Amino acid sequence: MIQEAFMQRSLTHENVVALSQRLDRYIAFYQKRKKKNAKFAAAN
User: Which Pfam families did the record assign (predicted)?
Assistant: First the structure.
Protein backbone atom coordinates (compact mmCIF):
# COMPACT_ATOMS: atom_id res chain seq x y z
CA MET A 1 0.00 0.00 0.00
CA ILE A 2 2.83 2.39 0.83
CA GLN A 3 4.47 1.67 -2.51
CA GLU A 4 1.19 2.38 -4.32
CA ALA A 5 0.73 5.63 -2.40
CA PHE A 6 4.26 6.64 -3.31
CA MET A 7 3.69 5.84 -6.97
CA GLN A 8 0.40 7.77 -7.01
CA ARG A 9 1.88 10.55 -4.84
CA SER A 10 -1.30 10.55 -2.76
CA LEU A 11 -2.81 8.64 0.14
CA THR A 12 -6.29 9.49 -1.13
CA HIS A 13 -5.88 8.24 -4.70
CA GLU A 14 -8.64 5.75 -5.56
CA ASN A 15 -6.13 2.91 -6.11
CA VAL A 16 -4.55 3.50 -2.70
CA VAL A 17 -7.93 3.67 -0.96
CA ALA A 18 -9.10 0.48 -2.70
CA LEU A 19 -5.93 -1.34 -1.67
CA SER A 20 -6.32 -0.10 1.90
CA GLN A 21 -9.89 -1.40 2.01
CA ARG A 22 -8.81 -4.81 0.71
CA LEU A 23 -6.10 -4.97 3.36
CA ASP A 24 -8.63 -4.00 6.05
CA ARG A 25 -10.92 -6.86 5.00
CA TYR A 26 -8.01 -9.31 5.01
CA ILE A 27 -6.89 -8.19 8.47
CA ALA A 28 -10.44 -8.50 9.85
CA PHE A 29 -10.79 -11.98 8.32
CA TYR A 30 -7.45 -13.07 9.77
CA GLN A 31 -8.30 -11.74 13.25
CA LYS A 32 -11.68 -13.54 13.26
CA ARG A 33 -10.05 -16.76 12.08
CA LYS A 34 -7.33 -16.50 14.70
CA LYS A 35 -9.94 -15.92 17.41
CA LYS A 36 -11.96 -18.96 16.31
CA ASN A 37 -8.84 -21.13 16.24
CA ALA A 38 -7.91 -19.99 19.75
CA LYS A 39 -11.36 -20.92 21.04
CA PHE A 40 -11.14 -24.31 19.33
CA ALA A 41 -7.68 -24.98 20.78
CA ALA A 42 -8.85 -23.99 24.28
CA ALA A 43 -11.81 -26.39 24.02
CA ASN A 44 -9.53 -29.34 23.22
Answer: SpoOE-like (PF09388)
Mean pLDDT for the stretch of residues 11-38: 96
pTM across the whole model: 0.74
Task: Domain count for the chain, please give it.
Answer: 1
| Spatial distance between the Cα atoms of 32 and 23, rounded to a whole number of angstroms | 14
Q: Note down the domain range covering 25.
A: 2-43
- Is residue 1 within 8 Å of residue 23, measured between CB atoms? yes
Q: How far apart are CA 37 and CA 17, in angstroms?
A: 30
Q: Are 4 and 15 in contact (CB under 8 A)?
A: yes
How far is the C-alpha of 22 from the C-alpha of 3, rounded, in Å? 15
